[in-house]
Amino acid sequence: MSRFARALLFVAVAISLGTASAEESSSDDDPKQRMASIELTLTENVDGATPVKASAYVDDGEDYAIGAFRFAEDHSFFHVETVLDVAKKLQVELPETYSTPESLTKCGKKTCSAGKLWKRSDEMRKADMHDAAGADLIRAMFKKGIESDFVAKCEQSLERTFDNIKRQRERERREAEEEAKLEKRRMEEEEAMEAAKERKKVYEADFERFSSALQVQHDGVEATVGPDGSAQVDLTSAVVKEFVEGRWNETIQLIKKIPGREKSVEILLMEARCHEMQGNHNSALSASGYLIQQAINHEKWVTGSPRMMAVTLGANAAMQLGMSDKALKFYQTVLKFDPEQEQARKQYRGLKKVIKLMNQAEEQIQKGYNKAASGLIDDCLSAMRGLDVDSPLFRSKIQLKLCTILSNMDNHEEALSNCDSAVEIRSSSSSVSDSAKKEAYLVRAEALLLDMDFDEAVSDFRSAFDLVPPDSDEKRTLNQKLHSSMQQQDAWNGGKKDHFYNEHRGFPDGKPPERDHIKILQLPVNLEEHDKAVKCKWLKKQFKTLVRKFHPDKYKGNKKRAARKFKEVTDSKEHLSKQWEC
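That's the J domain-containing protein sequence above. Prediction below.
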């Protein structure tokens, strides 16, 4: 039994040489010409496993070593002797007139020796270019006159290379799983936002019915105020009129004229609603809480009734203010007097779970465990679904927190997706305060800086700056951030002309852009330490990967970001190609 058979125990391999010619095997979809190909039959169990058909080939611009290593990768058949046998057959099949590219066979100006190939393979391995490392090892073993010890050394190194490929595949598998999870979360988030909008419609419909009932009850009654300014009987009708017509400030001013002890449940609900519509969550919380205290009794708390509407309004106001304990107390009060109230019980249990997850996430953030915090925030968003407090505005608070976490983890794509959603929610709502809008712009601006999108970051800093009251300390602090980001923007874009950078000094386009091209192309930070061959191989590999990822027609996220990244990658590749003479 051969060493190969002893090592594989029960793995049997049958190889048969195919007869397809180069012309027959070429494809209209593949711009490269097929130079050689073989067909194989692989059987991984001698006890009757179904044979698996496989193939190996060499395209124009490649050699037998590339074809053999690709065979191992494509079919996950990482056995040294089999791969060497495939390489030998591909070498035989290559036309005699075929000329292998010098980039594969030359080390400098001379043909690579076995030792030079070994050294180049080691450089490639250190740079995580395992396919190129494996191909060089195969070429080294095909050199004539090499000693058996050197062959054994190469075989061991090739086995380690195969192990590295397996680990690399595992990383890629995990990355693909993360990408799938991201896409799933995007879809779930869209569904959750739609569900939240539907619940918002129900909530608004309750207030429409409430307004209609009040209008019918007080239709035709004119309000009067006595000489001393005290409220008369018809003041309530005046309040109703202003409320129905959506004049929130006027309604509140009239309600202030009614003594607190004379305010009915309906008046208190209108007051709370006006504060909610103005984005004054503190006052909305206070008015809702007072209403609940006034309306407490052991009768059934009917869904859609004024006091249950006040519970939802008050809980929402509390959550907007970050007072989750107070939001829980609204539901606890209902359950204390009506334990069977289904809506309150469901909301209480769900909200309690959300609060627990948010507290756990905050603990992880404080410890610096961003990944664990990210998972808990995801769970929190899932738990929010189906809750009355799952308002778009509250959800935007969670999204901004998630944006910051993911940005710190360099997961810029998902981070900005959350930030974009939060900014859209806050900027499109008239009831959102300037302070809340400013917060969203600032969080996204910081995330954009980390993603090296300085143009959009400056735009967000400027939007936040415009929302801050003049002559305040915050205005001055934000002005410094704005100017700092503008300086980064100028350095990134280049083009500025001054006494040094101008056409007279050889810079007709102004100051060249200052960009970290290695970071843009996600290349290893120590790549400059390697030789030209390694750098150029990495450059080609990463460019191909990133242009495919950020192609605007295929990118599933923000198309504007994809177009920007696509251009940055292309520009950086052109710059490094010239610098490294690739």
